[in-house]
Amino acid sequence: MRLGGDPQDLRADAQRVRAWADAVDDAAAHVLRTAGVEWRSSAADRFRDQLAERRRTAMAVADDVRRVADEIEALATTLEERQRTLQNLLDQAGRTIEEVQQAVADGAVDVMDAAQGFANDAVEKGQELVGQARDLAGGLGRLL
Fold it and tell me: What is the pTM assigned to this prediction?
C-alpha cells in the first residue's frame, strides 16, 4: 500500500460516484418522457408541474454528485503529487548512507511526519467525499 492510500482507488471511487450521477440523469430523463403523456385536465397540469419539479430536483442532485466526483478526482491528484514529492525526497535522501545520515540529522523525520499528515488528511477528505456522495445517492433514492 502506498503512503496515504492509492490515488487509483480514489479515481475508481470518483468513477462510481459519476455513475450514480448518470443514473440520476436517466431517472430525470424518464420523468421527462412521462411528462409528455396526452392528458388534459387540471390534475394533469398539476401532475406535469410536479414532474417538472422532481426533474429539476433530480438534475440538481446529479450536479451535486458530479461535483463530489470532481472533488474526489482532485483529491486523487493531490495525493499523487504528494506521494511523488515524498518519493523524490526519499530518493534524494537515499543516494548515499552519508546523505541519509545528514538528512536524518537535518530533520528528515519531520518531513516524513508532515508527509504522513498530508496523506492522512487526503485519505480522510476522500472518505468524507465518498460518504457525502452516498448520502446524496440515498437522498435521491428517497426523492424518486
Answer: 0.56
